[in-house]
Amino acid sequence: MEHTSSTREHALVLLRQGMTNQAVAQRLGVPRGTVGWWRHEDRRRRREPFIRPTDCPRCIGRPFDQEAYSYLLGLYLGDGHIVSKTKQHHLSIFCDASWTGLVDAAEAAIRQVMSMPRVSRRQKQGCVEVKSYTQHWVCMFPQHGPGKKHERSIALEPWQQQVVDEHPWPFVRGLVHSDGCRITNWTVRNGKRYEYPRYWFTNVSDDIRQLYTDTLDRLGVTWTLCTRYGKAYNISVARKASVALMDAHIGPKY
Question: Which of 100, 123, 197, 199 has the fewest beta carbons under 10 Å from its own?
Fold first, then answer.
């Protein structure tokens, strides 16, 4: 299908004003692929380097959903990682496949923090990998680096700590949803069986456990450090008042 030169020039004017290929295509009734080719040829003639559009809050300074980010940060520190490639990075959050609500919440948090990157789900044995593709996830998660998290230092940047300080419960929820659980324990006293709820958080990184317990302290939640083979391993919340507080803001996975 041929298009007049005036249509092409009109499209280029709109593109140079910042409109997307799709928006120009819809306005002028031209296939989006054609508009994309016009943009490519126009950039080549003007020797204009291609810069991929982004809505990264750290790069363009836009406000972002800090509550969603605090939750996503907890998920990332627990069961997330970033894979780096030459032109792109992708964020992966691994969720137990049986917790469908958790999978939905992880994807929703990713989209609320940055809506432009492509998000997909990849079914694996026993889990679902929620993935998002953009080189800018390393801007939002500067804890990314070579090696396993528990083998290197993990510390929050000042701007991240400010987000966690303002939205501590979503951060705790993200950590519990990734590396924690709510279970029912039992014991026998005077021949009677008693059951009581308990929250567990398990992470081999001393730094990540410290971030978790520091936040619990600020929230007034009493916790206990449990060891395995003499090494710090689990954080337990079992006091009745503290469990009630956790239930009010977190609750069991779903």
Answer: 123
* Region of poorest pLDDT, from 30-34, 57-61, 158-162, 238-242: 30-34
What whole-number distance in Å separates Cα of residue 44 and Cα of residue 47? 5
**pTM for the full model?**
0.81
Question: What are the DSSP E strand ranges found in 78-148?
Answer: 80-84, 89-96, 118-124, 127-133
> Which of 198, 182, 187 has the alpha carbon at shortest distance from 239?
198
How far is the C-alpha of 136 from the C-alpha of 2, rounded, in Å? Answer: 38
Asked if 10 and 23 count as a contact pair (C-beta separation under 8 A), the reply is: no
Asked if residue 234 lies in contact with residue 202, where contact means CB atoms within 8 angstroms, the answer is yes
pLDDT in tens, 52-72: 678 899 998 999 999 999 999
